[in-house]
Amino acid sequence: MAGLTEWSVWYEEGLQAIALAEHLPYGKTFLVGTSGGAWAAIHAALERPDLFRAVIADSFDRRTLHDHFADHLQAERSAAKADPQSRAFYAWCQGPDWETIVDLDTAALLQLAEEKRYLFHKPLAQIRIPLLLMGSRRDEMCRKNLEEEYQQMAAHIPRATIQMFEHGGHPAILTNAEQAAEVICTFMMQSNNV
Questions:
Q1: Phi, psi dihedral angles at 153 (to 5 degrees)
Q2: Are 59 and 171 in contact (CB under 8 A)?
Q3: Structural contact between residues 172 and 134, judged by C-beta atoms closer than 8 angstroms
Q4: Least buried of 65, 67, 106, 159, by fewest C-beta within 10 Å?
Q5: What single-letter DSSP state applies at residue 20?
Q6: Is 96 exposed, middle or buried (0-12, 13-18, 19+ CB in 10 A)?
Q7: What Pfam families does the record tag this protein with (predicted)?
Q8: Backbone CA torsion sign across 78, 57, 142, 136
Q9: What is the pLDDT of residues 122-156, one digit of tens each?
Q10: What are the extents of the domains in the chain?
């Protein structure tokens, strides 16, 4: 994946979700993405809405990255690389070369933040399946006006719903696990009846 920007990485990850949905014998399915995975899930919904009943997009920083994203990212990644638990988590997820992977991901995100690029390959108004935008009002990794951004996005997406949690951090699906599970299950049941 050398030379891919973060946008194209999220698009490629969306294509991987599509390939998995095509391969599995489940028919239309629900797709949940959190943080960078939320961008991938939305890309998948834009590309192949026929494969998904609905998408839950949790704790992502909108259509572009916020002005202080680069500073927050560098501070978060430096702290994470110094923390033994975070290091173990990265190694578990990425393997023994996790530090190189994290550094490359960080560099791609910093480039994307500097370029202030639009993060989706198609207009969001083309999403025709139910979409739940979920986040926490106290998410330290996302912009401070995340709810306002979600409202602006939802205004262009016919079947969008927003759920903001008062407490918790990044991602909301983890830091508000029980509430998030309840909200997601309700959203899925409602989406299934449409």
A1: -65, -45
A2: yes
A3: yes
A4: 67
A5: H
A6: exposed
A7: Abhydrolase_6
A8: negative
A9: 888 999 999 999 999 988 777 677 899 899 989 99
A10: 9-62+122-194, 65-116
**Confidence check: pLDDT of 165 > 90:** yes
Please give the full DSSP string across 122-183, using - where no structure is assigned: S-GGG--S-EEEEEETT-SSS-TTHHHHHHHHHTTSTTEEEEEESS--SSHHHHTHHHHHHH
Place of tokens 């309840």: 182
pLDDT in tens, 91-114: 887 889 999 988 887 887 777 777
Compute φ and ψ for 83, nearest 5 degrees: -90, 125
Q: Tokens 């999220």 — which residue?
A: 10
Domain 9-62+122-194 sits in CATH 3.30.1330.50: no
What is the Cα–Cα distance from 40 to 132, expressed in whole angstroms? 14
- Of the chain, the percentage scoring pLDDT greater than 70 comes to 89
Give dist(CA 140, CA 160) in Å, integer: 24
Residue with the bigger pLDDT between 20 and 121: it is 20
Residue type, 46: L
Q: What is the DSSP letter of 133?
A: E
Which residue has tokens 């891919």? 4
Please tell me the pTM assigned to this model. 0.76
Cβ atoms of 172 and 108 within 8 Å: the answer is: no
Residue 141 is encoded by which pair of tokens?
A: 């990794």
